[in-house]
Specification:
The complex is a heterodimer of chains A (641) and B (310). By secondary structure, chain A is α/β, with parallel strands linked by helices. Chain A contains 18 helices and 30 strands. In chain A, the strands form seven sheets. A seven-stranded mixed sheet of chain A has the order 8-29-28-19-20-21-30, with helices on both faces. In chain A, strands 15-14-13-16-18-17 form a six-stranded mixed sheet, with helices on both faces. In chain B, strand 6, helix 5 and strand 7 form a beta-alpha-beta unit. The chains are: A alpha/beta (641), B alpha/beta (310).
Chain lengths: 641, 310
């Protein structure tokens, strides 16, 4: 078969592929990232590339304009290589890097501070599920001639470990040398279960000053890892990277679809493990820590991510009646899934509730210490899925709704992830209808990220560019509203001012997607409240988790009716609840227990069978809502106009 | 023990037409005909369908009463007014349909004016629910009927700006039409009122389904609108309701099939009349204030029912 060279720019990476290979596959093989949401179906239009040189066969050109096709643009997944080719990946199709976290200031609600987090960690008693213990043994004599293992167990018993003891078979390999090397002084790594204790590793000498744990938030988009020093309970390093599974589809559903194709499942597991290994390498190097000194890993994520990490087929999570293989995971050896750690290192996956309510939420709720008081709390995590939990110490009720990818920048013509060049803040003047935009990193705008989209919607609404239904007013006296290829649109950035070769616009279909997303989230909130006969006023604190919460202006989110209108002091942005939860679990068995209890106590409402959801959804398909009495301040703002 | 509901809301009163024959609709303080719980100050009114061109798809039994006037909307309207005692005329501008005769807005407006000048009862002017064409046609119609205080519709989400503005500009009332959904009905009313059309110039057209064709769906949506209006005092649902019954009933298969084709179903004319009256009566119970009907005998039956209930 003929082979051709494909060169990708700006990376300048080259790969040889067979005749007729598609460019998205070629890019994956070359380790070049091209955005794709649909997993190569040719429907999302995200993998737009420019064929600079060479011959290709183009299958589908959905989502491309005639003008673009003329210029040589094509969809990577629908373009087959027919000669040596040079491919340019435009900025909006590149992955970019995870932007640095900054301490955010918000003017509505409050952000949980680093000091509060540190305080919380101090209060948690150190009792990790895996712990190192220094041990001195009496050397054997002819009179005291029991085996090394028996001697070890005897010493453990003398040290106060009274549980039923077991020795992991892998310990035996080097035990004879390990106990003798430092004159019968060793460090034992113990795994604590409810009713038994297992010896996982025996090292010569006292190594308790080198004892680390890892907390991992396995996000669909971003993976974040904390390296925790077990002596201080605090993180000594934190790092993140995009989940490499993104190349196989941006949302969980396309990942599930991908997992069903050929070796898809193995590949997905490999990619997430590679991503975690990459972060571990960076963290341990920067902190000067030997990965072998990491005794355990705790991981939280949504149920699909947990399944993929374990290599479990997620197929049935997607099909009615949406059943996961497991929600309460047994701990396993971390090397079993391919993590680059010592073979004694354990991996703990935190518990999930249902297919669409995962460990990220359960641990987040526990980490935020939410279910303690009498007052009602509402915990919200908004991403592709909106997940929420309502409750107090008596009851916990949860649900999840599909918000679509709009809040992550998907399903929107110029949507993008929150990377450099993404518009994140917008203000539109109500008189001239001229916008002002701010981008991440101050770069020229290439697209709009989730928080930017919420700003755009709120500002367009308040400035009268759209009506309460989200329809653009083409009668406005500005060139920025016009008829585009997808119907009416509003020009946010003219081509000349942008970092791309097109006007950056918001189209009516974009607005519809955003409206649907926000309506689904708000309807889910109303259904939860309704299920226990409460109204929103009864909620004393609203805890908003996720990257989303940190960057979104809550006032704008209220303006469009995504978040309920409540006084500012009831909102707290807790940041990455899932990572918090994993951190706490790494240092405290009690936190793991609380997570398990919480997962068990949590009632899950399936909205797909809930008839009130549809009703709530339609009434929320309005800015801010059909029932204006729920949004008095927005009603006031509208009157002023 | 007698259990009575108490309500805290009232349906708005909307006046249509001018002079002695003007009608007022609405004003209920309880569910329709629940006179033991509140006031129903007047009976619902019945408007007769009049087409602005000879209808192509009316079954024989409903053509019969009008066979001498079809194709002449003025004569047709006068016949309904003078012979059948119509409370109102509903002039349907079907000839403007772009997929049919596609008559222009100007010409349609002339018909509107001619009919409005000929009759003394109030008039409803309906377009074809073609969003773009209606924008043109109803704007002209509003102008042509200036001073007659007609009800114009359907006002849809996609053309409310123009049509509601025309109604506002020429002092007509508007019928807001939404696809069988309480929230969407309400949303459209909010949009129309924000444009400046007064809430007491609006009638809700919730979409009508005939018996066997979604009647129960329409029934429950209307009932929910009424309960929101009366028990929650929800201002944007407190408009009277119009149901375009004739148009829906006379296209149902059970109504169109002739006696010869289905002898077991009985006489086609009786069947059609009963079908229309049954649909009308059910929707009266659900809260209808204006029924748009076709067959004079179905109208008679419906009026008998109202007399019985009052």
């Amino acid at each position: 078969m003929k082979k051709y060279k494909v060169t990708f720019y700006p990376e300048n990476k080259q790969i040889e592929v067979g005749d007729g290979e598609n460019l998205l596959e070629a890019a994956m093989a070359a380790d070049v990232h091209i955005n794709s949401q649909c997993g190569g179906e040719g429907t999302c239009g995200r993998c737009r590339i420019l064929v600079d040189e060479g011959e290709v066969t183009v299958l589908k050109t959905l989502k491309l304009s005639e003008d673009e096709i003329e210029k040589g643009y094509a969809l990577a997944c629908q373009t087959l290589v027919k000669s040596d080719v040079k491919i340019l990946i435009p900025p909006e199709a590149r992955l970019g890097s995870v932007p640095d976290e900054e301490e955010e200031m918000v003017d509505y609600g409050r952000v949980l501070s680093a000091a509060e987090e540190a305080d919380r960690i101090k209060q948690i008693e150190l009792d990790p599920p895996v712990r190192k213990l220094p041990l001195k043994m009496n050397p054997p004599t002819l009179d005291d001639n029991v085996s090394d293992v028996t001697r070890l167990l005897r010493a453990l018993s003398a040290a106060g470990i009274t549980n039923k003891m077991e020795v992991s078979s892998s310990v035996l390999d080097h035990l004879a040398h390990a106990v003798r090397e430092a004159d019968w002084s060793v460090t034992v790594t113990l795994l604590f279960d409810e009713d038994r204790t297992r010896v996982m590793r025996v090292e010569p000498g006292d190594t308790t000053d080198r004892s680390y744990g890892l907390a991992v938030d396995v996000g669909t988009t971003t993976i974040v890892v904390k390296l925790i020093d077990m002596r201080t309970k605090e993180a000594v390093a934190e790092g993140s990277a995009y989940n490499a599974q993104i190349s196989c589809g941006e949302d969980v559903i396309s990942r599930i679809v991908f997992s069903g194709k050929g070796k898809g499942l193995k590949r997905l597991q490999g990619l997430v493990v590679d991503t975690i290994n990459g972060i571990i390498k960076k963290l341990t190097e920067s902190a000067g820590v030997d990965p072998a000194d990491i005794t355990h890993v705790t991981a939280a994520g949504n149920t699909i991510m947990m399944h993929l990490l374990m290599g479990l087929d997620p197929k049935y999570l997607r099909e009615e009646p949406y059943i996961p293989t497991v929600t309460s995971f047994p701990d396993i050896s971390a090397v079993k899934i391919g993590l680059d750690l010592d073979r004694s290192a354990r991996l703990f996956l935190l518990p999930c509730v249902a297919s669409y309510l995962g460990a990220d939420i359960v641990t987040g709720v526990v980490a935020a210490d939410a279910p303690k008081g009498d007052g009602m709390f509402l915990y919200i995590d908004i991403g592709t899925n909106g997940e929420m939990v309502l409750g107090n110490h008596d009851l916990l009720i949860s649900c999840s709704c599909s918000a679509g990818p709009a809040f992550e920048g998907g399903g929107v013509k110029f949507g993008m992830r929150a990377t450099a060049g993404a518009i994140e803040e917008v203000a539109i003047d109500a008189m001239s209808h001229e916008p002002g935009v701010l981008t991440i990193g101050g770069k020229k705008a290439t697209g709009i990220c989730g928080s930017g989209l919420i700003d755009v919607l709120a500002e367009m609404f308040l400035a009268g560019v759209i009506d309460q239904k989200g329809k653009i007013d083409l009668g406005l006296n500005t060139a920025r509203v016009r008829h585009g290829e997808n119907g009416p649109e509003y020009v946010l950035v003219w081509e000349n001012d942008s970092g791309t070769d097109r006007d950056i616009v918001i189209t009516e279909p974009d607005i519809d997607n955003l409206m649907r997303a926000k309506a689904a989230v708000f309807a889910a909130i109303t259904v939860l409240l309704d299920s226990i006969g409460m109204t929103i006023d009864a909620v004393e604190k609203v805890l908003i988790a996720g990257a989303f919460g940190k960057h979104v202006d809550a006032k704008k989110a209220i303006t469009i009716g995504l978040l309920p209108e409540l006084p500012s002091d009831r909102f707290t942005f807790i940041g990455n609840g899932s990572l918090w939860g994993a951190h706490f679990a790494a240092i405290s068995r009690d936190m793991i227990r609380q997570s398990n209890d919480t997962a068990k106590r949590m009632t899950y409402l399936d909205l797909s069978t809930n008839n009130k959801f549809m009703d709530g959804y339609v009434s929320a398909l309005f800015l801010p809502h059909t029932d204006m009495s729920l949004f008095p301040s927005v009603a006031n703002m509208m009157k002023r106009d | 023990m007698e259990v009575k509901e108490t309500y805290n809301g009232t349906i708005r009163e909307v006046t249509l037409g001018v002079g002695d024959k003007a009608v007022v609709v609405g004003g209920e303080t309880a569910l329709s005909f629940y006179t033991f719980e509140g006031v129903m100050p007047r009976k619902p009114v019945i408007a007769f369908d009049v087409y602005d061109e000879e209808p192509a798809d009316w079954p024989a039994p409903v053509v019969e009463p009008y066979k001498d006037v079809l194709g002449d909307p003025v004569k047709w309207a006068l016949k309904c007014q003078n012979e059948y005692g119509a409370d109102m005329i509903c002039l349907q501008l079907v000839s403007t349909n772009p997929t049919g005769t596609n008559r222009g807005a100007e010409e349609a407006a002339q018909t509107v004016k001619a009919v409005a000048d000929a009759i003394d009862i109030p008039m409803i002017v309906y377009g074809t629910a073609n969003v773009e064409k209606d924008t043109e046609v109803l704007a002209k119609a509003a102008e042509a009927a200036q001073g007659k205080n007609v009800l114009m519709g359907p006002i849809e989400e996609d053309n409310y700006k123009t049509i509601a503005a025309a109604a506002l500009g020429f002092q007509q009332a508007g019928a807001t039409h939404s696809p069988i959904d309480v929230n969407m009905a309400k949303q459209l009313n909010i949009l129309a009122t924000q444009l400046g059309l007064n809430a007491d110039r609006i009638i809700i057209d919730p979409t009508t389904g005939a018996l066997g064709y979604g009647l129960e769906y329409v029934y429950s949506v209307m009932e929910r609108l009424r309960l929101a209006a009366l028990t929650q005092n929800d201002s944007m649902t407190q408009m009277p309701i119009i149901n375009t019954i004739g148009k829906e009933v006379w296209k149902a298969k059970e109504v169109k099939v002739s006696t010869e084709e289905e002898p077991a179903w009985g006489d086609a004319e009786t069947r059609g009349i009963i079908w229309e009256a049954m649909t009308a009566i059910a929707l009266l119970m659900a809260g209808s204030d204006i029924l748009v009907m076709r067959h004079p005998k179905a109208v008679e039956l419906t009026r008998d029912f109202m007399a019985l209930m009052a």
